[in-house]
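Re: [help] complex structure
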Amino acid sequence: MEEILNIKNLTKAYDDIVVLEQVNLTVHKGEVVVIVGPSGCGKSTLLRCINAFEEIREGTVSLCGETINPCREKLNKVRERIGMVFQSYDLFPHKTVLQNMTLAPVKVKKANKKDAEQEALALLERIGLSTKKDSYPRQLSGGQKQRVAIVRALMMHPEVLLLDEITAALDPEMVREVLDVVINLAKEGRTMVIVTHELAFARAVADRMVFIDCGRIVEEGTPEEFFENPKTDRLRKFLDSFSY
Ligand code: ADP
Ligand code: MG
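Output below.
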């Protein structure tokens, strides 16, 4: 299977404090890897290292066989190929849904505006939001904004999509609609690395589960092994702290 992401011996520190230590992770095309772990264990930092938002102390991150080189010009190119959605939907408040979606492809990728609009409308249709194309973010619910943020990331045709706790800031009744969008992307064979605390969702969507604790990968495996038969005490305790 084609390798999309390859993280080798990644160590990340803020000054003297090591927050990720010797992390190794490979993600293949079409694979969905879900990362869980206690708050502060380094999940967001890992995603930010993948996207080269953070300088790493040791190790390498490669995208489709190319080591990501921390030189500015190349970084922008790399970031075009990695989609990222955060907890707080970061849509541009003064642009409509359609403008939010077409801005980067037209500006950065020099896509034809009409084509980009067509594509955006088709994506909105799929998530049931075509009637919102001319709305501004403030006119949408949190769940709707987050769904737009996801399809906006798809407009750049990323090789891999990184999702960092994308439902954490949502009211409970909106979580489902957002997770359903992600489940559909998984069914389409999108390559994704997902950080979430929604364990039932994780189990449903993951090809592989990864547990990080104190900056290290402590355990990984198929969702079944991971949830039914955790090998380490640390993972067992972590899972027990959820009543899902
Ligand atoms: P998680 O996403 O798993 O909750 P983070 O990756 O956000 O954890 O943080 C991992 C650790 O790194 C935490 O101890 C956090 O305090 C620390 N950290 C994160 N960002 C910074 C920063 N910019 N400067 C210093 N320490 C940071
Ligand atoms: Mg985080």
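The chain has a mean pLDDT of 95.
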